[in-house]
Amino acid sequence: MKFKNNFADVLLLIATAFAIGLSIILWTTIMTSDQRFSHIDQQATTQTTKNRVSTKSLYDLYSPSSVYGYRKGKLCQLYDEKHNLSLEFINEFKTVNLATPTIVSTSTAKYREMLDNRNYLQLAYPDEVTFSLFDKKIKMKSGYKEFSRIFLSSSNRVIYFGNDKTKTVYRMEVSKANFNRLRKYANHASSAREVSLVQLRDGYSVYYKNSIKANVYSYLVTHQTSSYYVNRLLGTSGVSSKNNKNGSTTYTLSYYNRLKTPAKGSHIYTYTHYEKGNSSSATRRLENVVYYIRRIGLSEQDLHFFDSDGKTILYTNFVEGIPVFSTGDALQITTRYTSEAVKIAFNNTNLQIPIPYDGESVTLPDTASVISALTNRGISQNSIQKIVVGFEEQRDNNRKNLIDLVPTYYIKIYGEWKSFDGWKDALNDSYSITNSEGTK
Amino acid sequence: MDHKRIEWLFLIIFSLIDLYLAFEIFNSPVQLNNSETGTASSNARVEMRADGISLPRNLSSKSGSGYYLAATKNNYLAKKVSSLTGVNASYSKSDKILTATPQTEVAVGLTKGQIASSLTKFKNDENNVPYGKQFKYEPNLSSGNSFVFVQTSSYGNIYDDDATLTFTVKKGRLVKYEETYIGAVSPVRELQSTISAWRAIYAMYTDQELANNTRVTEIKLGYTKMTTVRGNVILIPSWLVWVKNKESGNVTLKRVNAFNGEVLQTNTTYNLDD
């Protein structure tokens, strides 16, 4: 009897101690959670700034950037003047019922077989995106959450997905899919450039086998003012500002929001929002940018996902499937996630009105010769991560609101994107530094 | 015994506190994803209803696609005046308007249906109206004795003063017509996605372009002029929204850029010619 009483006393003591301990833990969790405070902050901001209407869906931001198919047994990059193949795919993909994919293979040889299979139409993303971005119900184990390529067979019941980095092939059974129109448009695409897919450090890059002729486009551009962004991101009350030496100004609202305006001659703004737990998953990081784009009030019209290095994600405008690089090789939006904050660098240049094509074009060399030109200058092939054809933004000195988009090669090396000429200059500088140091 | 009672009291109180705190933690969502947009969107419908704004039934939430189009500025109609054998025509180069009256009396009927049908037949004859087959009757722009036709293209109808055919009818007879013609249009860039009709209405509402106690009577996707640059007229896909004031009965036509949801105000001209 006494033993029973003692046992009940001990249990009561343990339960009481546990309840007190749990209270302390829960209380501490609540008090140290920035999310609660940032939530309050977000609500306040929503009330003070008028929300821009979201014009595009997440699907538009994360649509494939290029389409490939086989013509006369050769892999070609397809482009159709009348039908936007990528848009056609994503409009259909929106309506498809997705299921959890199964892993078909993880070998490089099998992946190569998929790439070389003439029966598939391939839609490539510029980098990895997650399955759950398109359907929250899809739960994949770690290491198998992402894909960068879609293989469309003649069947509307199965879609194959591929990851260029891990060489994983996934098979997904889908319903309510009908890609017949896309296949028809792809078969009759007005342009088919012969390409090969070459393995570089970050996956497969497109190599043009021959020199290519690419159009130069012009745009009328507009720039929003600093006050526009201050108002949208920080509101109108409680904002403090500090002028910096380089001509930029830093605006701060509480401890959680900071906006730095561009230095003289630049168009890049930097917005920092301090919030823990922002970078919890790849899907969350990819999703969050949609919120920030709308909150900043950036034009979403041509904006697409471009590149990702885990916690740094790049977005830029695409014109006819080609990414646009701003002056100084910057991209339209760069988001950087840390455990404490999300930092968004964005360009306030808006490609507002396209000017009709006037027939101007440039001829670019085949891709292999660009790579060999770089390796001949001392860059090892292993350090070349990606190569793409991109538009270089060239401003007209006489007309501030006019820019030309001139095609050129862009290469990612050591985590940095630069144009071919940019890398040549950088390598020349490093040579001259090395040489001058060597002669001292 | 007292000690035991205090322990029970502590256990009950702290258990309740735990429950409350746990509820607080699970009940404090921070949603940064696009679900916020959906909620805002459904709230807007309720708010619009409360503001006395009536919307058409089955307002589509499905996005579409469209092009930037360009048309070269030219005096297209001036060259056609001499070939018009069914009408007496004159062309104003400054306004770019062709005005014509029928050479013989043209009966068009008395009901709107009859008149529209007769005028369609009349304008399809190249001897009467240059490029007439490219125009289509638009009842939303027509009123009283004025029957308006808009220029069509393979990409969509064009809603602009520079692409309009307006007939004046009196007592069942065609009096005259005035025509403007923007020329053939062609895409400037690739096909892009456009916002849905509902998104356009939502954009107008958030931009305070939909007044209280109004009714959206019609919403159509067409091409409207955005600007003129280097001798080219640039057209964009736009949602045309006809809004009727419930009290005064006045109808106004508003335009929303179908690419980015901006409410369009006036056209601007950029002169980039050297």
Automatic annotation (TrEMBL), chain A:
Q: Cross-referenced CDD domains, in alphabetical order?
A: YycH_N
Protein name, UniProt field: Regulatory protein YycH domain-containing protein
Concerning Gene3D superfamilies, the annotation shows: 3.10.450.310
Record's keyword annotation contains Transmembrane helix: yes
Task: Give TM regions.
Answer: 7-30
Which keywords describe this protein according to UniProt? Membrane, Transmembrane, Transmembrane helix
Q: Transmembrane helix: is it a keyword of this entry?
A: yes
From TrEMBL, chain B:
Q: Which UniProt keywords apply?
A: Membrane, Transmembrane, Transmembrane helix
Q: Where are the transmembrane segments?
A: 7-26
Signal sequence: where? Answer: none
Is Phosphoprotein among the key words of this record? no
Q: Does the keyword Membrane apply?
A: yes
InterPro entries, A to Z: YycI-like
Q: Which stretches make up the Regulatory protein YycH-like domain?
A: 40-259
Please state what the protein is called. Answer: Regulatory protein YycH-like domain-containing protein
Gene Ontology annotations for the cellular component aspect, listed alphabetically: membrane
